[in-house]
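Now for one protein, fold included:
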Amino acid sequence: QAVETLISTAPLQYGDLAALGLASWTPAGLSAWLLELINVSTGMPWFWTIIAGTVASRLIVVPFSIRQMRNSAKLAPFQPRLLALKDEVTRAYASKDTIAVQRAALKQRRVYEEAGVSLFPMLAMPFIQLPVTLGMFFGVKKVCMHPLEQLHDSGVSFLPDLTVADPYYILPIVSAALMNLQLSVSNVRPYAYRHLLAFAVF
């Protein structure tokens, strides 16, 4: 009886998704909780609830992304030196010269210090961004796959039922385009990642 009440067409209440096992302390569960919070607080249709939840999840990582871009900009003038040091590290590994590897790693660390760049935020960014991004993806998927009657009325005419696949492929195309844009923007700083793990352990 309780489950039947929860999956009725009545608006969700706080705690309903947790009662259905969709909200938890996992990244996906926290994303589902965020969607519930937005939907219950604002009364927005679920289509716009999911968009608002996605935007909110992206805003969480914005400060880290900004700091990472600033660090990458600081490292830009040092790229030739970092590339040379990368070759030095490669040669040291090839010759199995542990002392040379450590020496090259210390040189790299000095370059980062000279540029005023902290290693930890650049190393931590992927581990922050990935759970947030995948958490929202799997959170939305879990909610849409669960028999929630509220999701049968999305609030938009071109995609009325969120429990079925987009027949026009609008959202997959938009998602792919935005992902490509993000990767294109990210390509301005790929060199920074080549040198981080080479000496992070030293």
Remarks:
- The CA atoms of residues 170 and 181 lie 17 Å apart.
